[in-house]
Amino acid sequence: MKTHLPITLVFILHSFFILQAQNFEIDTQLFASGLNQPLGIENVGDSRLFIPEKPGTISIVNANGSVEPTPFLDITNLVTTNGERGLLGLAFHPNYTTNGYFYVNYTNTSGNTVISRFSVSADNPNLADENTELQLLTYNQPFANHNGGDLTFGPDGMLYIASGDGGSGGDPGERAQSLNTLLGKILRLNVDIAAPYIPNNNPFVNDGDNQTLGEIWAYGLRNPFRISFDSANGDFWIGDVGQNEIEEINKVTQNPAAVNYGWRCFEGNSTYDDTSDCLNSFSPHTPPIIDYTQTNGRCSVTGGRVYRGPDFSNLTGVYIFADFCSGELASIDSSQNVNFTTPTNGSSFVGFGTNDTNMLFVADIGGSIYKIVDNIALGVHSQNDTPAITITPNPTQSSFNISLLEDYAQVEIFNISGQQVFQKRVNKDEEIQVSNLAEGLYIVRIISPTGKHSVKKLIKY
């Protein structure tokens, strides 16, 4: 079913050697820890960071990195968290300082998506009123995966919602290309008008077809995991998780309406579905700005942000994103050069955000928030020159070995929720037993005696 479009040798070589030409080196510095599966980072124009957490809470991190003991919001009783479900997104109204409104995207106890508005407490800025929920939109999720979940306000004041294709694999319901479902889409709401909150200038409101849904702004997405607007020019960026081969980053200038991003007819720049349904009815699509293959442990893109912070001028205008499986950060510069790097700290990156001065941070689902830094500007050297390490067999049913180059290493294994399920000092050639682990995807972190580390994907069956 899959055929690949040619990729030029120039692009491959340029992507591989670009590190030598860059004048920055992205890394992380620990800012806060002790959080419960953080998925994102937001601010309200002051020094606090608001952290949505998968189980259904929002925590506040202060300017010194301390975490407020009481969550800003706790709706764990409303939220389902198995698989890719949970409290997945948070956005504050542009006029939050005057109206106190904020919006969340969560999976309810029936497994379906809910977009709701809450209000801050009238007498405590660090506490929301859990009794103020107003549901703006709900829609069914046929499977537990591909919920999407992000939401953000655009420069136009509209609320944008990232919706996955409904799950399973390969979009079996062909939902992403259908305008009769909200799945596999970017949705756009005007939260300042009456229900159903659909702006009159959404592209399918007055299209003459009563089957198309007015909430849709763009379509053709598989699992858009993190969306963002460039604060300098309004460009719209999407990290869309691929099927079995290709991850992609999408970018459109000024965020035009009715963009078709291509799934499931295309996975990245490669044909995924060459059947007549796609060939005969597929409308012109906008290809990704870059795509990359699921090699070197990479398997799940986390969309990021364009750096507009005050600290590292060489990063200005650079789009910084991550791969959840490999534990790498990555960058796209103005010439669309791509570079992957393994940071000193953190691995399971799931969301980016800024503080009130545009400092950029990244969330690790294991419980930490890291500040994005430029090692060259700081005058420090990278510690991430660990030679290639392999895991065999992979997939495995009961055990595996690591090709350690030193006598021993610290080995940590995490499930896809960021929970540590194994930790041990492992000797060279020692077999690691995992027969007690459930089937699924795991992240293996290997730390050498000198502090160098590598992150690998492990599949247990």
UniProtKB/TrEMBL annotation:
Domain Glucose/Sorbosone dehydrogenase: residue ranges: 35-336
A Pfam family this chain is assigned to: Por_Secre_tail
Keyword Signal: yes
Residue span(s) of domain Secretion system C-terminal sorting: 393-459
Keywords: Signal
InterPro entries in alphabetical order: 6-blade_b-propeller_TolB-like (IPR011042), Glc/Sorbosone_DH (IPR012938), Quinoprot_gluc/sorb_DH_b-prop (IPR011041), Secre_tail (IPR026444)
NCBIfam families per the UniProt record, alphabetical: Por_Secre_tail (TIGR04183), T9SS_Cterm_ChiA (NF033708)
Listed name of the protein: Cadherin
Species per Swiss-Prot/TrEMBL record: Croceibacter atlanticus (strain ATCC BAA-628 / JCM 21780 / CIP 108009 / IAM 15332 / KCTC 12090 / HTCC2559)
